[in-house]
């Protein structure tokens, strides 16, 4: 994969995608969003990649949507820009494979929104989070008003968005925005260790669990339970279920094959 603003690496079955526009603190412009969209399609379709880590090069994860590009947009162009970002982030959220955000620095505006469409967020002690849009005379446009409220509750989301306050990693942990805070130089090792732990489980089951949680959170509990019931049933059509339960009963480690 050859991109101008992204770096892609593999570590076994782990894909590591890094936003690489450090001079602009990895700000998301139309080109970066377009590359991200293509990269996600390739990663989702690559059978050798079972889990994805998203991070940023340099001192930022992503410092937001590109303010220089947005400054001259008219309303129609801004709506299209939001549509692009919303579409890419939704694609990440709905990937079958789990996605971990390794937040290495500023995660502001579109950067906080990018981290929130990932399944799990690990932050370095240097990470900073915020939705500073109202300070620029706009509102979040890549689903910040939606995912932040769902993750940390409406009251905290409104306070963060109305004040534009930047919070550090420990505060982000305290309010439930991130799963874990680690020293900067351990961030990628921690993210990879977490990825490997998830990879040691049945990956079809992990994917079904992701779908069930995501879809269930977006509907009423009856429908959510019906989704869980059907996916639970579907697990029993997989070789992984036979292997997982067989291994338990035979007192050995399972050898999952994603089948
Ligand atoms: N867009 C475009 N360029 C950006 C940027 C952004 N979001 N964030 C940083 N940059 C650029 C700066 O303009 C600067 O470029 P030059 O060297 O060419 O001047 C470079 O990155 C380094 O930034 P600073 O000199 O500002 O670095 P700093 O350490 O003094 O400050 C910062 C760091 C606090 C993150 C500051 O850069 C900042 O406040 N950035 C903007 C954050 C922001 O408001 N993000 C939200 C954008 S709106 C949005 O995202 C809408 C949406 O939901 C879709």
From TrEMBL:
UniProt keyword Lyase, yes or no? yes
List, alphabetically, the InterPro entries matched.
Answer: ClpP/crotonase-like_dom_sf (IPR029045), Enoyl-CoA_hyd/isom_CS (IPR018376), Enoyl-CoA_hydra/iso (IPR001753), Enoyl-CoA_hydra_C (IPR014748)
| Keyword ATP-binding in annotation | no
A Gene Ontology biological process noted in the UniProt record is: fatty acid beta-oxidation
Which terms are listed as keywords in the entry? Lyase
* GO molecular function (one): hydro-lyase activity
As for family, the record states: Belongs to the enoyl-CoA hydratase/isomerase family.
- Protein name per the record: Enoyl-CoA hydratase
Report the source organism. Answer: Sporanaerobacter acetigenes DSM 13106
In the record, what lineage is assigned to the organism producing the protein?
A: Bacteria, Bacillati, Bacillota, Tissierellia, Tissierellales
